[in-house]
Amino acid sequence: MAPLFISMQMLLLVFTCILLHVTCTTYHDSTPKTVPSTNSSKWVGPIGHRVITVDVNGGAHFRSVKAAVNAVPENNRMNVLIQISAGYYIEKVVVPVTKPYITFQGAGRDVTVIEWHDRASDPGPNGQQLRTYRTASVTVFANYFSARNISFKNTAPAPMPGMEGWQAAAFRISGDKAYFSGCGFYGAQDTLCDDAGRHYFKECYIEGSIDFIFGNGRSMYKDCRLHSIATRFGSIAAQDRQFPYEKTGFSFVRCKVTGTGPIYVGRAMGQYSRIVYAYTYFDGIVAHGGWDDIDWNTSNNNKTVFFGVYKCWGPGAAAIRGVPLAQELDFESAHPFLVKSFVNGRHWIAPSDA
């Protein structure tokens, strides 16, 4: 009778749990969470792990990054780590929207490089000009992409100011919840297309001359180096927020601005462009006035932009403060731009990665 007694106890426990709606653990954004038990199960995050190796010299699963991405199935449900050995990978790579949860892991941003050379005026497969957004050496449309210790480069020559058709992106991120750590982005005009979605860049190196970070992403750049190679003049960020209700914008926290100039630190690509610099060092390369609020559509001064500065320093910092275009923020107004909640990071960025 003892086995039957135990079985009855177990049945009673299960019945009680159902009545009390006991919760079970599931995974979303790679972080354990609890959701109420239901009669139907629903997949809410990645299941399992897969490692794919790439080495341009052979001895791995693939010799190219493109081949590794192609090996990931459509509607991917796994965390896929693509380990890319040291080397120069001369190829153009696209991560489609149907392949989320992919990580590019390099051997170091100085030794693992993906590069290509397209310019906006170059003809595409259909014979028409590529235009800026399709020039990127690497384009990511998928959500939950991450990259670590790897560089992305567009080797097209740097244009002189005013030259048309020379935009040449190294990387385009159009997916949501993307994370970058220890990465390099190298180009000249329009290096990093921060197109759409929430993104977090940590300890990255970004180099360019004109609008070398641009788009309508909602992004935080923390402890990054922004290096200008401008000759006659240049600009760092061109942010494309179009409407006041959009939550997009660029926040630069504890960054370092170096290189050549003169440069503007921000330009109004969109009517409600939003850019904030906090705790950031500026070399003495900032142009007089610091910012450019000219509306790209009307060529008039834009009165609806939000350019903010909080506790920046260095020989070029004076040029971005105390000017009509930029607000000198206090802690209360700056705080939303200083923490990872600016990109809803508490839900998808691990504390150790912030």
UniProtKB/TrEMBL annotation:
<dbReference type="InterPro" id="IPR011050">
    <property type="entry name" value="Pectin_lyase_fold/virulence"/>
</dbReference>
<dbReference type="Pfam" id="PF01095">
    <property type="entry name" value="Pectinesterase"/>
</dbReference>
<keyword id="KW-0378">Hydrolase</keyword>
<feature type="signal peptide">
    <location>
        <begin position="1"/>
        <end position="25"/>
    </location>
</feature>
<comment type="similarity">
    <text>Belongs to the pectinesterase family.</text>
</comment>
<dbReference type="GO" id="GO:0045490">
    <property type="term" value="P:pectin catabolic process"/>
</dbReference>
<keyword id="KW-0063">Aspartyl esterase</keyword>
<comment type="pathway">
    <text>Glycan metabolism; pectin degradation; 2-dehydro-3-deoxy-D-gluconate from pectin: step 1/5.</text>
</comment>
<dbReference type="InterPro" id="IPR033131">
    <property type="entry name" value="Pectinesterase_Asp_AS"/>
</dbReference>
<feature type="active site">
    <location>
        <position position="211"/>
    </location>
</feature>
<dbReference type="InterPro" id="IPR012334">
    <property type="entry name" value="Pectin_lyas_fold"/>
</dbReference>
<dbReference type="GO" id="GO:0042545">
    <property type="term" value="P:cell wall modification"/>
</dbReference>
<protein>
    <recommendedName>
        <fullName>Pectinesterase</fullName>
        <ecNumber>3.1.1.11</ecNumber>
    </recommendedName>
</protein>
<dbReference type="GO" id="GO:0030599">
    <property type="term" value="F:pectinesterase activity"/>
</dbReference>
<keyword id="KW-0964">Secreted</keyword>
<keyword id="KW-0134">Cell wall</keyword>
<keyword id="KW-0732">Signal</keyword>
<dbReference type="InterPro" id="IPR000070">
    <property type="entry name" value="Pectinesterase_cat"/>
</dbReference>
<feature type="domain" description="Pectinesterase catalytic">
    <location>
        <begin position="52"/>
        <end position="345"/>
    </location>
</feature>
